[in-house]
Amino acid sequence: MSNFSSIAYYIPELILVILILSVIVIDLIPSLQDLKFPVAFIGLGLLALALNLSHGVKASIFMDLIVVDPFSHFFKWIFVLATASILLVSRYSVEVEEENHVEYISLMLMILLGLFLMASSTNLLMIYLAIELVSIPSYILAGMKKNDRASNEASLKYVIFGSFASGLMLFGLSWLYGISGSTNILDIHAALLTNGNQFLVYMSLMMIMVGFGYKISMAPFHYWTPDVYEGSPTPVTAFFSIGPKAAGFAILIRVLYTIFTNDGSLNATSPLYDVNWTLIFAVLAAITMTIGNFLALHQENVKRLLAFSSISHVGFMLIAFTVIGTEALTALLFYLVIYFFMTLSAFIIAIFIKNKLDTDTIDGWKGLAIRNPLISAFMVISLVSLAGLPPTAGFVGKFYLLAVLFRAKTFYWLAVVAILNSIVSLYYYFKIIKSMYFLNEEEEVSSEPLEVNPYVKWTAILFSAQTLLFYFYWTPLIEFINRSLSFWNS
User: Fold this and answer.
1) What share of the chain is helix, strand, coil (3-state, %, to 5)?
2) What is the pLDDT of residues 205-222, one digit of tens each?
3) What's the rounded Cα separation, in Å, for the pair 448 and 152?
4) How many CA atoms, within 13 angstroms, populate the side-chain half-sphere of residue 482?
């Protein structure tokens, strides 16, 4: 499709570009500076409306650089909801200084644009540019606390690890271009079908997985995660735990199922040339969830603990790549939505604690149940869901992923590893609960009530409540996911 004809399908992204420019221009006019957040929320509302109007559309636009399809739309909804909720609580966060609000909002919206492009890219050049559009503003956001040494360190480590991962990924992408002479992933798949060289497939796949694995915090490319999560402002950490990870899974699914399967579509049932990448992902899933869980056991910093927790959850989501088929992808996307709600609710409550008590340690949460019983109760719900216990949606999500293995009658050992890791995770999640609810006789804490900003409180409650709702009734979500499992060319 020509560039001019493509514009009609590119309305959500155009709204986002206009929104970014509007926020910057508003900051230049003193009388309008207080409108930065309202304008951002209005713009995101228009963006959501445009997404809703274009739902179900399938088209390849801008000369096959990006596509519009139900699969990309599913992830775009996650990106918009994550960005809107983080911006809402960021407005009341002490870690994001008012003088930096315009830079903060602009960078968040730039990342959102990059996330949109990551979910829609079908060209190697566009894939790389989209990842960099997410990465570069993320490096700046991680160092938003300019006078904080930990924040500066987080930003620097993010840059170093990101540059290394991007270089290896680019090398892998160059292999695919060398094989096919094209940067379009459909052309690359057609070229690989006639090439027949397993070695080239293995080499390019391994290099590409470095870049994508870095984005989703997959072991052994996870080393940046705890330091960046700890040093970044808590709202930024919350955003990093959802947005880039979801986009990483979106691009990983599109590339794997388009290039490295025989059918080259979401309906694929076998890997290209019988290259056993399902076994590779089984091993990586086991390593990732085990490293995340066991390193979390010794953490006393809540943000570092949640960072290692997010790594372990990535390990669980990688289980879906051990079986090729739509059932596995349905389980993955379902778990991703559940992870979105339970992780964001936990981080939003952590933002509240940082605002009120200026602490990131588990000990700093002591007696919270006395000072704010409501928020404490919903934190417990989020943590129980993260641990995968009933009656929460975290249990249902893990059940769906493990059911994939049992239906396929494969990798039973991975199911055992996953169950054992779930048991291990109980220890560090309940460390936070213990700190909130159980005090030693000699310990004294203030009983003065902690007031919560209404926006922060109701956002946390709304997200936490979803982990209960989806335990009892999740059919509409599964139906929406099944409708979303469709590429533009299928």
Assistant:
1) 75, 5, 20
2) 888 888 888 888 898 888
3) 35
4) 7
